Inverse folding.
């Protein structure tokens, strides 16, 4: 009995907000889902969501709404955090299976953290390029031995590898345009590179420098 | 009040990011501002002393009457036109600096660190350093720089494509700007496409966490733009030697390396560089000995090197400003409500608008912070009056 009451209260608490629900309207026919988007398209469809003001309001003495200046943030937003160097130090070896040599001397580039402090990690042109270099070095080790990286990539093999890397580096399946961007690095954007293993490594590094790896 | 989820805004964001990435991949990213037309390359170095900048340095004679802050008849240096500075510290700067130095008054009326620091750099919406860097144009890949880990105060929204980039290591900076001799490194032009691809793949995160990943998005874009620029050769060994650093000491982790990094970035085309130094909340420093000691041991040695190498270059117009939250009040060296800023530059006329009273106050009518930045704009010869009319016109050499 007690459990049933608690469950009811929980359900009401979770879903029973009384604010107006901002239900989204029908999709614009010119908008396509993100996972069907081709590189170059900028039309994206987001999931339909129902939103309501969560959090209780309080009226103080004199009828003043005490939470009037409270800034609501929608669910699902602002969840990502840039990984500090202390995390990257173990993250690169974890996903790559090797430790890029550049990593050892890169701490000052990503910003040293004073003892007993945790400042929000900063990113810059230099740190992002350094991240790409570290990723490329690690990816070169990944592509250095297997025979499959010593043959010219096709759309099918590039797509398969990019999908596998994304799943490994990001812990989620990649969407079509993301796979296409990675495959394009291998198939077209690195075309001047004569070493096939390096071409694969460029694609790998581009996935490894994307935000799904650089943030948590 | 509720910040509603809006598909339209989400789409706009993704469209903007995707478009930016694709434009960058195609080499179509627009120029951020019109190019500077004068032949001298202008640049501003702001030395921000976190905690406060005692006006004994820039307005020494204010304290001579009562002998406060340790001022005596023998430790003042009269530069003329009403400007008297602290002789044992600023007075030892190279002659070029002394001949082109002014004290600029800022009557901001703020005595809390947080409010004063933010007001020195921002109106709450824009960041003056980024605004100025954007207005100055030029061809530098990185136009606005924070050297070192100490954060420049104030919100830092991107202005006309210019964001504030943090430089914390000179080796990797030289490699990004000047190319690498490491044969295993990625080819520069392919790496640029790789960075653009990474940014494209990051679109969802950048849109759904716009605040928390702001620096990440700016970093991708600035990296793409940096790699699009021609490589610039740098002689790091010579730079390190000039600043008394070891050739392998590349981390920007003290004031000396901050100023070396400032020279590196200005040489690479940066317009505005900010170096923040800590430890200047000098309560109880009644005779000014603590701030004089920090100035002489930490700040001035690299600054003298910088002045000699950068400010006397006939092809440059480098301005140096020393400022802080506010001046220190009397008798206990606490928080004053105004600031006397030291400015040095080729087009600076010796003089002062920042002479404090004996009790550390500036006259009514002394301009506030935007007036200081308007002055910077004038002496840097930037044509756009982005901060309004310069109220310190008597301090400009024409």
């Amino acid at each position: 009995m007690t459990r049933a009451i608690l469950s009811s209260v929980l359900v009401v608490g979770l879903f029973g907000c009384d604010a107006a629900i901002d239900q989204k309207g029908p999709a614009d026919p010119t908008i396509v889902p993100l996972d069907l988007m081709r590189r170059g398209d900028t039309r994206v469809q987001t999931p339909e969501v129902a939103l309501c003001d969560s959090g209780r309001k309080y009226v103080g003495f004199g009828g003043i709404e005490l939470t009037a200046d409270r800034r609501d943030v929608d669910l699902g937003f602002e969840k990502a955090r840039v990984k500090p160097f202390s995390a990257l130090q173990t993250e690169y070896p974890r996903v790559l299976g090797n430790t890029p040599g550049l990593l050892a001397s890169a701490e000052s580039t990503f910003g040293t953290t004073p003892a007993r402090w945790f400042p929000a990690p900063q990113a810059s042109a230099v740190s992002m390029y350094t991240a790409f270099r570290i990723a490329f070095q690690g990816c070169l080790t990944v592509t250095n031995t297997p025979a499959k990286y010593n043959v010219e990539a096709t759309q099918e093999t590039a797509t398969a590898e990019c999908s596998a890397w994304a799943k490994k580096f990001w812990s989620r399946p990649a969407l079509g345009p993301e796979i296409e961007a990675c495959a394009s690095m291998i198939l077209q954007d690195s075309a001047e590179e004569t070493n096939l293993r390096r071409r694969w490594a460029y694609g790998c590094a581009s996935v490894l420098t994307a935000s799904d790896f650089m943030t948590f | 009040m509720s910040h509603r989820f809006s598909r339209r805004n989400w789409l706009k964001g993704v469209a903007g990011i995707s478009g930016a990435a694709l434009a960058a991949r195609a080499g179509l990213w627009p120029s951020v501002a019109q190019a500077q037309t004068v032949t001298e390359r202008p640049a501003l170095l702001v030395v921000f002393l976190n905690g406060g900048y005692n006006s004994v340095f820039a307005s020494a004679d204010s304290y001579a009457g009562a002998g406060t802050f340790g001022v005596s008849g023998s430790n003042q240096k009269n530069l003329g036109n009403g400007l008297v500075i602290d002789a044992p510290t600023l007075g030892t700067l190279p002659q070029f600096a002394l001949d082109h130095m002014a004290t600029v008054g800022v009557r901001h009326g703020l005595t809390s660190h947080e409010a004063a620091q933010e007001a020195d750099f921002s109106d709450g919406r824009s960041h003056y350093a980024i605004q100025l860097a954007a207005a100055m144009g030029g061809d530098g890949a990185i136009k606005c720089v924070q050297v070192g880990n100490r954060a420049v105060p104030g919100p830092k929204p991107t202005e006309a494509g210019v964001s504030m980039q943090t430089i914390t290591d000179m080796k990797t900076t030289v490699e990004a700007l000047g190319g690498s001799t490491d044969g295993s490194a990625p080819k520069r032009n392919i790496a640029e496409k790789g960075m653009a691809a990474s940014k494209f793949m990051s679109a969802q995160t950048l849109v759904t966490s716009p605040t928390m990943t702001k620096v990440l998005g700016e970093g991708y874009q600035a990296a793409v733009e940096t790699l699009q620029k021609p490589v610039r050769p740098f002689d790091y060994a010579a730079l390190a030697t000039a600043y008394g650093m070891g050739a392998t000491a590349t981390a920007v982790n003290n004031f000396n390396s901050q100023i070396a990094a400032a020279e590196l970035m200005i040489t690479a085309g940066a317009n505005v560089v900010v170096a923040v130094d800590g430890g200047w909340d000098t309560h109880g420093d009644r005779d000014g000995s603590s701030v004089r000691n920090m100035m002489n041991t930490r700040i001035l040695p690299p600054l003298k090197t910088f002045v000699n190498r950068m400010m006397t270059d006939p092809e440059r117009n480098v301005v140096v400003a020393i400022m802080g939250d506010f001046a220190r009040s009397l008798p206990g060296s606490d928080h004053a409500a105004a600031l006397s800023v030291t400015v040095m530059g080729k087009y600076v006329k010796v003089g002062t608008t920042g002479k404090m009273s004996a009790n550390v106050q500036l006259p009514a009518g002394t301009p506030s912070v935007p007036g200081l930045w308007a002055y910077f704009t004038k002496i840097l010869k930037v044509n756009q009056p982005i901060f309004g009319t310069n109220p310190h016109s008597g301090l400009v050499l024409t």
